[in-house]
Amino acid sequence: MCGRLQLIPKHQALFLLKNCLGIPKIVHILRTSLAWMFPQELYRLDQVFREAVETITNVRMDHPTWLQASLPVRFGGLGIRRTEKLPPSAYLASVSSLHQLISGLCPTLAATDITTATRSWKLEANTDDIPGQAFRHVRKAWDTPLTLNAFSRLTTLRTSQEEIAHLKAVSVPESGVWIHALLAVCLGNLLEDNAIRISVALRLGAPIVTPHVCVCRGLVDELGRHGLRCKRSAGRLPRHDGISAEFARGLKSAGFPSRMEGLSVKDLSVKDKKRPDVITLIPWTRGKPLAVDVTCVDTLAASYIDRTSVNAGAAAELA
User: Fold this and answer.
1) What is the 3-state secondary structure (H, E, C) of 89-122?
2) Does 276 map to a domain?
3) Residue 301 covered by a domain
4) pTM, entire model
5) pLDDT digit string (tens) for 2-19?
6) Residue 38 domain flag
7) pLDDT tens sequence across 199-230
């Protein structure tokens, strides 16, 4: 199935791998079997998923990149989990929800396998603190310590100030919304193949381009982040106009027709001579129209690194 995903557009393929053909396809097996006792088979399955992500996105998956990709979206990953890390938590959550029934049917199984699974989970999570009795039936309660341990290992691999700021930025909930979004052309949230490659590579900190000199005489490294801040970049205006268009589309859906930079300063009666990017054509509240201004900033720009490496979103708040 992973091989056939290469035959369809990349965004749909990545969505199906994450939500249908990856862990969701085998979660029942992980919850009801002693899968952690077969690490070689789990590793082989992870390699299939890793190669599928690499082929679909056209992004090279080295160890740090794959480690981040396999994290949940809320931790800066793609949500395509590694099967070799999940079996103990999935099994323990399942057994805990049916502990009394299992104890009555097969006391030996309940005693030995739970102990083995718990030992394996503690080793993977690098902690002895198991979830409380009230939460042991919830898989997320077992999975979160594993994820935190993996995220901690990732931070030891990427120690520069820029990479720390990058990890904080992609861990903000809003930065992963596009991964969860249902794909619909009519909503404008279906990305073309090259946009998927760039989006995934920027999120995972993976190479995008061959190093070269920009037209502005600046050096473009393999991560391609220079284009996010270059004053001569062709991508800055489309990013700006895209955000403005989203505001205008949302206002129209809410019943407030608007115009994008279509009115003169005289028509708007703006005292400070600034021109909004979007303005409603009818009053928004108390007889006054709504004016929207859009600013695109780069979290990883040198002028922001000192702040964004400490607090995610600091560049946007400053702007």
Assistant:
1) HHHHHHHHHCHHHHHHHCHHHHHHHHHHHHHHHH
2) yes
3) no
4) 0.83
5) 889 989 999 999 999 999
6) yes
7) 999 999 999 999 999 888 888 889 988 888 88
